[in-house]
Amino acid sequence: MSKDHCDNSSTAVLAFLAGTVVGAAIALLTAPKTGQETREMLADYGAELKERAKTLPDDFQEYKETAIERSKEMIAKGKELISRGTDLAAQGKDFLDEKKRTLSEAIEAGKVAMQEEREALAHKLEEKD
Questions:
Q1: 3-state secondary structure the chain
Q2: Which structural domain, as residue segments, surrounds residue 103?
Q3: pLDDT recorded at residue 89
Q4: How far is Cα 90 from Cα 31, in angstroms, rounded to an integer?
Q5: Domain tally for the chain?
Q6: What is the per-residue pLDDT across 80-96, written as a single tens digit (0 to 9) for each?
Q7: Percentage of residues in the chain with pLDDT exceeding 90?
Q8: Is 14:49 a contact under the CB 8 Å cutoff?
Q9: Residue 17 · residue 49 · CB < 8 Å
Q10: Which residues does 17 contact at the CB level (< 8 Å), separation at least 6?
Q11: Could you tell me the CA-to-CA distances from 89 to 5, 45, 86, 96 in Å, in that order?
């Protein structure tokens, strides 16, 4: 779970609680009830809010566990990608080493062939003289 998702979830929970409180306040201010009825209603809202607040730690624990799990998955994926990259780099190095060796052999063979041609030419020139 991304940090933004956790932040959005936390914000949503807090917004919900704030909305509950604001809604209760508006209901109290606009309702034509007696003082006793209003106190009872406040007590009910308080009890309900208290019950909802009890579940918050569980909700946050769930978000935390999900975030930790997602982080572990991302770390494992990162390690896998690093391993694959390391393997590909090693393969690339081996490939370049092989091509370098082949090129060096071709250059050496060219030098030997050139030397042989020089000697053959030198020998032909000596024969003509």
A1: CCHHHHHHHHHHHHHHHHHHHHHHHHHHHHCCCCHHHHHHHHHHHHHHHHHHHHHHHHHHHHHHHHHHHHHHHHHHHHHHHHHHHHHHHHHHHHHHHHHHHHHHHHHHHHHHHHHHHHHHHHHHHHHHC
A2: 3-128
A3: 92
A4: 76
A5: 1
A6: 999 999 999 999 999 99
A7: 36
A8: no
A9: yes
A10: 49, 52, 53
A11: 35, 64, 5, 10
Q: What phi-psi label fits residue 32: left (phi over 0), alpha (psi between -120 and 50 degrees) or beta?
A: beta
pLDDT digits (tens, 9 = 90+) for 32-67: 767 777 778 778 877 887 777 777 777 677 777 888
Tokens of 105: 């052999």
The two structure tokens encoding residue 26 = 């508006």
- pTM: predicted TM-score of the whole model, two decimal places: 0.42
